[in-house]
């Protein structure tokens, strides 16, 4: 087998990034605007807007904390300026303490401790500028595809998703696994009705049991609310695109997993402990599942769409793949590749899969995706508890 390579950035803990960002990480919603101001002033920095970080308890607190740490620990990040207010539940110093274990540069700035917003922006900008300069001096090295974690996602699905782009991504998933890498399957909501197919491929009984547990828990959340999960899934856009039911959508979505054994089922924003195919328990919400996979270490995400979406990530390149040629032509500014050629009979699933795999090589080595060019820095955490 011809082993794929890419040019990446080696981190102190041995992981490899495909980007070299300095992340301004706000641990509380009150600090997000200051973080945005720093990114506008200092080239080479990225950040995100969110509404979390305070009045969270229990497992909800833990999941948000894990997501913050995962974003900063992602191999695509060179260094982190953790920006807090000072009195919030998710303390900036606690997040920074976990990030320091990666060996990458980490600094803390507090709005309350630095004389307010202007002082915090000034101090954060000074620190970030030094980090960016140091990051710009880092040389790339040739790395193996076995060091990649690729997230897979479908959003704005249509009747073509399960016939073109999703099976092509499944081919890519198998190829990556065969190269020793890791492919993350997500979207638990959109695997309801296809769970038995994944359980049959589980490496052991424990993993198979976990498949049914996460599906059951997702359905029970809707039952406790007194609603039918199928009133929101498939979405109006999915139905307009030709999908008739959640089960039909799930059968198409599961095609992204390819055919290799399912190694483990992991929690939201958790880093895989095994290589190969893994399933991350996430909701179907595009931004929330994308954030979870990136916080779990995914350096690149493959995102198939039949209805079209501009979705991206602040730190991971997102490769958009159209399921039909019509949406590719209408939204070519947002979508990178077209799998609609499969529907038209011009290409096979295998050949499109190879195109996507080749694109991963280019993107991993530095080619910008459409979402990156348009600065589509989307971020959203899956909340699993109330705000107090």
TrEMBL record:
Pfam families: GD_AH_C, GD_AH_second. GO terms for biological process: D-galacturonate catabolic process. One of its GO terms (molecular function) is lyase activity. Keywords: Hydrolase, Lyase. Residues 146-386 form the D-galactarate/Altronate dehydratase C-terminal domain. Coiled coil: none annotated. Residues 228-258 are annotated as: Disordered. Residues 8-135 form the D-galactarate/Altronate dehydratase second domain. Belongs to the UxaA family. This is Carbohydrate hydrolase.
């Amino acid at each position: 087998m011809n082993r794929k390579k890419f040019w990446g950035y080696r981190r102190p803990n041995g992981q490899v990034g495909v980007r070299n960002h300095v992340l301004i990480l706000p641990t509380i919603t009150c600090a997000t605007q200051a973080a945005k101001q720093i990114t506008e002033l200092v080239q080479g920095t990225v950040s995100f807007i969110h509404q979390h970080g305070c009045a969270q308890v229990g497992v909800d607190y833990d999941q948000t904390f894990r997501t913050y740490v995962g974003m900063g620990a992602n191999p695509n990040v060179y260094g982190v300026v953790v920006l807090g207010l000072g009195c919030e539940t998710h303390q900036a110093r606690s997040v920074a303490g976990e990030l320091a274990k990666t060996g990458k540069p980490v600094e803390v700035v507090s709005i309350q401790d630095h004389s307010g917003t202007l002082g915090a922006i000034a101090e954060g900008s000074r620190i970030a500028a030094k980090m960016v300069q140091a990051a710009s001096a880092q040389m790339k090295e040739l790395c193996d595809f076995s060091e990649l974690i690729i997230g897979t996602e479908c959003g704005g699905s249509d009747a073509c998703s399960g016939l073109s782009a999703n099976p092509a991504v499944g081919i890519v998933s198998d190829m990556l696994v065969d190269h020793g890498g890791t492919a993350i399957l997500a979207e638990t909501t959109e695997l309801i009705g296809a769970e038995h197919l994944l359980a049959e491929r589980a490496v052991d009984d424990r993993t198979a049991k976990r498949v049914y547990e996460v599906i059951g828990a997702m359905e029970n959340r809707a039952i406790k609310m007194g609603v039918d999960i199928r009133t929101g899934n498939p979405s109006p856009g999915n139905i307009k695109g030709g999908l008739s039911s959640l089960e039909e959508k799930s059968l198409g979505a599961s095609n992204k997993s390819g055919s290799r054994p399912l190694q483990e089922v992991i929690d939201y924003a958790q880093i895989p402990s095994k290589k190969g195919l893994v399933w991350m328990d996430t909701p179907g919400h595009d931004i929330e599942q994308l954030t979870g996979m990136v916080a779990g270490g995914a350096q690149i995400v493959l995102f198939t769409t039949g209805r079209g979406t501009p979705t991206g990530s602040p730190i991971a390149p997102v490769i958009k793949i159209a399921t039909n040629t019509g949406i590719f032509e209408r939204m070519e500014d947002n979508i990178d590749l077209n799998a609609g050629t499969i529907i038209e009979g011009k290409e096979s699933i295998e050949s499109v899969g190879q195109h996507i795999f080749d694109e991963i090589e280019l993107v991993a080595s530095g080619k910008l995706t459409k979402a990156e060019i348009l600065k589509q820095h989307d971020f959203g955490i899956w909340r699993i508890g109330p705000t107090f």
